[in-house]
Amino acid sequence: MQIKKQVEWGLHCCLTLAELPDDEFLSAKDLALAYRLPKPYLAKALQALSRAGLLVKAMGPMGGYRLARQDNEITVLNIVEAIEGNGPLFRDTGIGQLTTSMTAAPLCPINRVMMAAEHEWRAALKVTLQDLRASLTIGRK
User: Fold this and answer.
1) What is the distance between the alpha carbons of residues 93 and 14, in angstroms, rounded to a whole number?
2) Cα separation of 12 and 47, whole Å?
3) Under a CB-based contact definition with an 8 Å cutoff, are residues 67 and 73 in contact?
4) What is the C-alpha to C-alpha distance for residues 132 and 76, in angstroms, rounded to an integer?
5) CA–CA dist 126, 51 (Å, integer)
6) pLDDT of residue 98
7) Which of 46, 72, 80, 82 has the fewest CB atoms inside 10 Å of its own CB, making it the most exposed?
8) pTM here?
9) Rounded to whole angstroms, how far apart are CA atoms 14 and 46?
10) Nearest partner of 26 among 59, 70, 63, judged by Cα
11) What pLDDT, in 10s, does the model give residues 72-83?
């Protein structure tokens, strides 16, 4: 499994946007400059986050992006799924099903392991932006 680099970009941008007052916005251009990222590709990630309801976009000269919800309501998993999608990471094609009967075969042990791993991975990503911000603050002291 490899996660798109836009996920990292989205996480950093969301952390930056979490620092803004509720009525302020930051443009894709400013975010791209701050992180030295290509604006067209960053803009696609920001649009995905906006479509997922994690960011609000405002048009115009003072427009840009801000969080759509409080930082304690947005998880790393939300951001990953907004950019990567929320489908299963492992898709069992059934090649391990060696039964010839019409009854359902027990769940493949490989599928069970992969499903358990995905469950643990998703659970570990339920860290909120607020949690991340707090860990950054602790690291600065």
Assistant:
1) 36
2) 15
3) no
4) 9
5) 20
6) 59
7) 72
8) 0.85
9) 9
10) 63
11) 999 999 999 999
Asked if 54 contacts 67 with a C-beta cutoff of 8 angstroms, the reply is: yes
Side chain identity, residue 138: I
Cβ-based neighbour number of residue 112 at 10 Å: 12
Binned at pLDDT 50, 70 and 90, residue 62 comes out as confident
| Calpha distance 34→42 (Å, rounded) | 12
d(CA 82, CA 95): 31
Q: By the 8 A CB rule, do 8 and 43 touch? A: no
DSSP 53: T
By residue count, the chain amounts to 141
